[in-house]
Design a protein that fits this description.
Helix content is 70%, strand content 0%. By secondary structure, the protein is mostly helical. It has one domain.
Length: 110
């Protein structure tokens, strides 16, 4: 994920705020008006990108343990294949039952 748009837009927002603050305190009315009109959309866009980045980071950190355990299961399967014990279940893999009574029913009541 690239952080360039977030950094660029945040920099523009801070720069616009500083320009607006300077122009208001220095009685530069036209510049203060222009900077004041562009500041709210820049601030909203910056807040949106920050929130989106935080959500992506949270989602990535939530997925990471699942991906590592899946890689561990894949490695275990590969090592069993190399040893020739593919058919034997491990602790993570339950034995497949051949009886129909052990399988859950997929019929739904109407």
């Amino acid at each position: 994920m690239l952080h360039r748009p977030l950094v660029f837009l945040s920099g523009l927002t801070v720069g616009d705020y500083l320009l607006w603050n300077w122009s208001v305190s220095g009685n530069h009315d036209v510049l203060a008006l222009i900077a004041g009109f562009t500041l709210p959309p820049l601030a909203v866009a910056s807040a949106w990108l920050i929130a989106l980045t935080l959500v992506r980071l949270i989602a990535r950190s939530a997925r990471r343990p699942v991906a590592s355990s899946a890689r561990g299961n894949l490695r275990a399967q590969q090592s069993r294949r190399a040893r020739g014990t593919v058919g034997e279940p491990t602790v993570n893999e339950p034995k497949a039952s051949t009886r129909s009574a052990d399988r859950p029913s997929r019929k739904l009541a109407a």
